[in-house]
Amino acid sequence: MKKRTRKIIRFIGIIFIIAGLGIFGWEFYQSTKSKGISQDLESISKKIDDELPPQGTITLAEAFQLKHKRLNEEYLTLNEDYAGWVKVDGTVINYPYVHFKNNDFYFRRGFDKKRLVHGTIFMDYRNDPNFTDKHTVLYGHAMLDGTMFRALDKYKSKDFFEQNQTIEIRTLNDVRTYRIFSAYVVDASKRGLDIPGNDQSVESLIALYKGHGRYKTSTDTSDADHVLTLVSCNYDIDNGRIIVHAVLDSVVELEP
Fold it and tell me: Distance between CA 100 and CA 89 in Å, rounded?
């Protein structure tokens, strides 16, 4: 009887080990696939850099315009839902984002539209990709390999919050710099976001989000006409979300 019991326990243990290895292997495969997509997109950027006219033959402003025009053309060729690029100061966040007719399609699909646990950074379907709304929201998963929007968790640290205040957004029409003014963790089942927020004043939205913030900010929000928000999961609490709010600091228009 004891021998049989030991065999059953051993068998169950082996099953758990095999299942664990399978899960680890699947996560590794998905992580590698996601990083491969990012590397492919980065190689396009490097290729465009290499093809730009030599320094001295065009101005820096002309090179800037030419590069970003070509980037947008290349990414739109790969995916017609491409809406821009988001980069967050002091983090690995440096990804394309998409805009689609719902928030479900890219939740578990890569930029190539194929199934991928990491998904793609996406703009809320209720938003105008031209940033005409009072409140625009980008979502991304908090992946355990540290990619996508996982790095937003760093804004729980006061030092990091104070030292890394810049978000760069490249749309199809311009390049925008935003300054962060609030960051916090919430229970998503108890507190939602007003999107696109066009029935409220920007001042009331900013006051609300400042009130939720973990730390006071030196960011000037007095002239803001809209709010940019980045959202990801947070595992400190049940159904947690890490939320980072920012206001526009500057814009460089891209030539047609």
Answer: 26
Question: Both tokens of residue 71?
Answer: 């980037």
Domain borders along the chain are 82-253
85: β partners: 96, 170
> Per-residue pLDDT tens for 96-105?
999 999 999 9
Q: Which amino acid is at 20?
A: G
Query: With pLDDT > 70 as the criterion, what percentage of the chain qualifies?
Result: 86
Phi and psi torsions of 115, nearest 5°: -55, 130
Q: Look at the domain 82-253 and name its fold.
A: Sortase; Chain: A; (2.40.260)
121 in Cβ contact with 98 (< 8 Å): yes
The backbone region for 228, taken as left when phi is positive above 0, alpha when psi lies in -120 to 50, beta otherwise, is beta
Cα–Cα distance list, 38 to 27, 97, 148 (Å): 17, 12, 10
